[in-house]
Amino acid sequence: MSSPDFSYETRPVRVVFRAGAARTAPPDEAARLGLRRLLVVCGSRGESTARAVAEALGDSCAGVHTGARMHVPAETADLAVEAARVADADGIVAVGGGSAIGLGKAIALRTGLPLLAVPSTYSGSEMTPVWGLTEHGVKRTGRDPVVQPRSVVYDPELTLSLPVPLTVTSGINALAHAVEALYAPDTSPLVSLMAEDGVRALAEALPALVAEPADLGARGRALYGAWLCGACLGSTTMGLHHKVCHVLGGSYGLPHAETHTVVLPYVLAFNAPAAPRAVTALRRALGAPDVPRALWELAGRLGAPRSLAELGLKEDDVRVAADQVAGQPYANPRPVTADEVRAVLRAAYEGRPPETAEV
Ligand code: NAD
Questions:
Q1: Which of 49, 123, 157, 235 to mutate to test the pocket of ligand 1 (most atoms within 8 A of CB)?
Q2: Cβ atoms of 200 and 224 closer than 8 Å
Q3: Could you tell me where in the chain the CATH 1.20.1090.10 domains are found?
Q4: Closest CA to 159 of 62, 49, 234
Q5: Could you tell me which of 258, 236, 286, 270 has the C-alpha nearest to residue 343?
C-alpha cells in the first residue's frame, strides 16, 4: 500500500443547490458578499430567466445586460464592461450557460468585480477560474482566481427548458471533465471521488431525462453531477480530449457540447491503457467493463451525434486538425504522436465503435 501523494487547493466558493433557488437565493448571496448594485448578464435566449433573477434582487439590481454570445467575442466583452461601468455595478450575476458565465468572467477579469453565477446548463464553467476570450477568430483562455464565481446558485428548475438534445450533449460535456480529471497530473483523492460520483449521477439521470424531460428529480441529479464534474474541471489540468475539442471548436467552428460528446469515447480508448485507476473508477460509475464502449453506446441510446462528419467536419480537416493538436503542449497520461492524434480523430470522424488501444 503506497502513501497518498497529492496537492489540492480549495477555492472560496459558496454553493447553494435547491429547486427554485434562482428566484430566492440571489438576494441572500449578494447580501453575504456585501453587494448592492448587481448587473445581471445573460444571452438573448436566457433573458426571461435573467429578468426573474433581476426581479428577485429588487433594489440590488443595477440592470440587465443581454449581450452574451458563444465563446465571448472581445467586442461583446467590451460592451459588457461598459454596461457595468455605466450601471456603476459593484458585482455581476451571470445567468445562463457557459456563454453567459463566460461573459461574466470577462467582466470580472477586466474590472475585478465579484461574480455570482446561476447556471442553466451542465457546462461547469461556474466552478472554474478559467476564462476565455475570442479575438480575430482565435480563442485565448487563461486562469485567474478573480473570475471564479464567489457564489453559485444551482436551480434544477432552470434546466427544465433545456431541449433534450442539449441536455444530452451538455451532460456528456460534463462527463468529459470528470474523465480527464481522473487521469490528470494534478488529480487528487477528493477530485477522484467527485469525478466518480459525477459520472454516476449523469449516467443515471440522462436516460431518465430522455424518457421524461420534465422529471425534476432527474434534472436535479443531472445538475448535481454537473456541479461535481465542474468542480473537477476547476481543480485539474485537462488533457488530450479537451485539447482536441478546443481545436475543433476554435478553428473549425464545431459546436461545443456536441464535439465533446463525439470525441470522448475515442480519446478515452486511447488513454485507457495508461490510466488504469481512472478506468477502474469509471467502470464502477458506469457499471460496465469496457468504458469507452459504454460511453459510445450511451451517446447512441440517448440519440446524440456520434461522428465528427455529422457535426460538419470535412474529411480533409482531420489531418490538419490533428497536426494542430499535436503541435501544442498539453498534459496527457499517455504520450501522443501526430499519427496517433490523427487515428483518434479519424475514428471520431467516422463514428465507428471505439477500440481500446493495446500498448
Ligand atoms: P451556451 O451557454 O452557449 O448555451 C447553449 C445554448 O443553450 C444557447 O443558445 C443558450 O441560450 C441555450 N440555453 C442555455 N440554458 C438554457 C436553458 N436552461 N433552456 C433553454 N436553452 C438554454 O453553451 P454551454 O454548452 O453551456 O457553454 C459553452 C461555452 O462555455 C463555450 O464557449 C465553452 O468554451 C465555455 N465553457 C467554459 C468553461 C470554463 O471553465 N471557462 C467550462 C465549460 C464551458
A1: 123
A2: no
A3: 164-350
A4: 49
A5: 270
CA–centroid distance, 1 to ligand 1, in Å, is 43
Q: Quick check: 295 and 355 in contact, CB under 8 A?
A: no
How many angstroms does the Cα of residue 221 sit away from the middle of ligand 1? 19
Residue 320 identity: V
The CATH number that domain 14-159 falls under is: 3.40.50.1970
Each residue's pLDDT, cut to its tens digit, for the chain (359 residues) gives 889 999 998 888 999 999 999 999 999 999 999 999 999 999 998 999 999 999 999 999 999 999 999 889 999 999 999 999 999 999 999 999 999 999 999 999 999 999 999 999 999 999 999 999 998 877 889 999 999 999 999 999 999 999 999 999 999 999 999 999 999 999 999 999 999 999 999 999 999 999 999 999 999 999 999 999 999 999 999 999 999 999 999 889 899 999 999 999 999 999 999 999 999 999 999 999 999 999 999 999 999 999 999 999 999 999 999 999 998 888 999 999 999 999 999 999 999 999 986 65
φ/ψ of 4, rounded to 5, equals -55, 150
Tell me the residue length of the chain.
359
Cα separation of 263 and 248, whole Å? 10
Domain boundaries for CATH 3.40.50.1970 within the chain:
14-159
Backbone angles phi, psi at 24, to 5 degrees: -125, -35
Cα–Cα distance for residue pair 169/304, rounded to 1 Å: 7
Phi, psi of 17 (to 5 degrees): -125, 110
Asked if 299 and 306 count as a contact pair (C-beta separation under 8 A), the reply is yes
Does the structural domain 164-350 have CATH classification 1.20.1090.10?
yes
Nearest CA, atom 40, ligand 1: 125
- Among 256, 9, 30, smallest CA distance to 141 is for 256
